[in-house]
What we know:
Chain A is of the alpha+beta class.
Amino acid sequence: MTGNNTGRVTAGELQLPQRQLAMVFDLNKCLGCHTCSIACKTQWTGEEGMENMWWTVVNTEPGKGTPKDWQQMSGGFDADGKPRPSRIPSREEFGEAWKYNHDEVFKGGKGKGVHLKPETKPKWGANWDEDEGAGDYPNSYYFYLPRICNHCTHPACLEACPRGAITKRKKDGIVLLNEKRCKGYRFCMEACPYKRIYYNHVQDVSQKCIFCFPRLAKGVAPACSRQCPGRLRFVGYLDDPDGPIHKLVNKWKVALPLHSEYGTQPNVYYVPPLSPPKLNSSGKLATDKPRIPLDYLRGLFGDRVEEVLQTLEREIAKKRRGEESELMDTLIVYSWPKDIFPDFANDPVTLSGGDHG
Amino acid sequence: MQVSPVAAADSDLGHIDSELWRQVRSETIQLLGVPAGMQPSPYIVKKWRDREVGRVKAVEFGALHNGSAIAFRLAWQDPEQDVSRNDNEGFPDGAAVMFPLKDDAPLVLMGSKEQPVNAWHWRADRPELARNNVAAGLGSSRVTRGSEIRTQARYRDDHWELIFLRELKLPDVSTAVDFSPGQSAKVALAVWEGSNGERGGLKAFSPQWIELTLGELKAKG
């Protein structure tokens, strides 16, 4: 194990699920197309009060993210395991669901003279700083960072809730929020250091990613993973030695948690992004330095990131030479869907109302 | 405290401008903030350790009944009116009256499994009906149906005025406190100051049960 799943202690007892489902996102494959976000939106967040919710979102790094500047908001636990106070992000920081003048353009007879635009002047949105990144030409850089609820092994949200409305499932470690117990107090939104919980102000409850648990029950992968055109979202059990998650996280150790220093033991892991070498002042390749600064990646994924990038480069080189590489074969996903979410490879078409048997 | 019987319609009893409420003798009930150390999650304890919980310090409290319905009037000072939950970080003002469903229900712990409590919870974002809650300990309150608790509230001159109105008796005594003229009852109060982020256990409350005696209506003639 990576040491990332040490569990949490309540009333003197170590709490760990029997098994833990996890995801690995290979950032070298992410196109920033937002199909994951749309798949989730279409599946789960269409009700009133959910308009601005993006349970899965794709942020550009470096960037302020969603909600704006979430990495500066604290939350989670300190090195001693004590809660770190934080605050509730505002709707503006998450980004409002802008209303557009659809009626005017499509039904008001002004379609030729008026263009479609938000009714209020937007100030921030879920992907406001997309593709901006950092660095100066010709060494500017960015990469995409898809984010969901991390279904943490030590969930700060669960421990913050005074009502026991949040639970971690024994059988697979999915963290769920019971809307019947929730009274909309939003302590979970404060405590979550990843700021992946939203408040539904119409229904007066907090809401978040549910790891598509009703789909899992039918052997179908979460919508974000199934629909991902880049096929970069691996899903499976951490303890399955034949599955891709175990291979990437525990065997090859190339998938790292985001901000492990937040202390919640997240169960979404990232294969960090490789980048082309920097150009020097005379426009020549400076081959010893990657375009994305290592320090920046360390800030997100921890000190092992350099070692991981070296492993990836070494295995890529092997594959180029025609040699075997289990790691590369795993990351390539030759046989989709069974190589990327082996336990959840059923076609979503089997879900629709039992019509398909 | 006497709950005086009055020969008046329910609508008068529950009306904030009713002449009845000018005549009733109200008492000033001092409130205490629930200490941070008593909050049921480590996060809340840590966050609120050095903050003021329970910004409202006192409530003017009065009660009346008419033989079929009972009404409670609460009034308190609040320089900031909070009526909306539209912003993520905004919380509405609120107030509650709480009763033991069994005689010795612990007030500070909001009841126990054996001795639950019944709380009528009003909030400024849904001002016309209070929610009926049953609680069997901190963090355990649940809303039940079948108890209509009408409320009327008004914010004026930095003050909230609020009236709860409910029938004396409801069919399900396991979820709704039962009142009888000539009998006594107990009540406790709580107020949430929205602008201070007060919600859930972050509130001001009356730390002891207030004894109520429901007067008997005089027979006519």
